[in-house]
Amino acid sequence: MVSRFDLDAGGLAGLLPDEPPYRVRQLRHGLLQGREPGELTDLPKPLRARLAEMHELQPGLRLVHEAAADGGDTVKWLWEVASAGSGAPPRVETVLMHYPGRTTVCVSSQAGCAMACSFCATGQLGFERHLTTGEIVEQVVRASSTAAAGGRRLGNVVFMGMGEPLANLDRVWQAVHVLHDDLGISARHLTISTVGVVPGIDRLAAADLPVNLAVSLHAATDDLRDELVPLGKRYPLGELVEACARYVQTTRRRLSFEWALIAGTNDTPQQAAALAPIARELRAHVNLIPLNPTPGYPATGSSPAAVRAFRDRLVQLGVNATIRRNRGTDIDAACGQLRASMAASPVQISRR
Ligand code: SAH
Fold it and tell me: How confident is the model over 50-58, as a mean pLDDT?
């Protein structure tokens, strides 16, 4: 599985042994701007025609569905990627979000996910395959082109789409380097979100770019966390919190905790009381978001009043906590949900 962004400069040079290095640079630059090989008019026409035919330079993502919501401020894509074996091609999602003053893309790192978090639509699917570096980069390039066409500059990338980025860290890290080195996105505008893969957190702490780390905590006691996040049995909260502390100490980056509020489950005063000392100790920011209901998990998100009450309790306990708006709920813009609702559908464009 090789697509146009899987080849680095050396790989592209290998494809074009007869071309001078500046041609290879022009090609790479053009592709990263979101242009098709056949449209690179700074290259000679015969070369363009040759490039357009090369299978290594084909896109890795095929559009299945595009949907816009929030008056165009949220755009979500469902893509098909090459299948690993004989099965149907897996599908992955990308979401572009415009906020006042900033534009963020949420990318997938795997097709499916092996982490099996009970409330997560992707977790309910199971694992299909790792995305390649090129497939990850292409999500950002496509989103960036869309943003630019609307007069916005894409400045932030969050690895909060489908998959567990720290279970695919080699490819994710190569993609991080392309985004940073070639697309000029600074490390402080790159965020990797993990369910709590402790060895991966330690690898990130030792890595050569200080990206932001978000940890999907969702519960502050092991009994409840193990129900929501099966990986908790392998890496209990004590070990996870220690890894977070090492990360913060080594990188000096801010840590955030993600907390999807589930009515009557993790929105209780007991959970707030258990979370507060952990968050204070790590100076972590807590992002609260009401659970988006998924087909395989019979629970509802906390009511707006319960969300505010949980936030207020954390703030009273000295924690930095904010409520995040659900983005694109009407287009299923939550982890794995567009894909779940679009099972086996043809290409469609919807605007709401
Ligand atoms: N595997 C990584 C990144 C992908 S999930 C991780 O777990 O962090 C991105 C975020 O969406 C995580 O915080 C995840 O817990 C959350 N999420 C998944 N399903 C959700 C749902 N149904 N409602 C709200 N948040 C959800």
Answer: 96
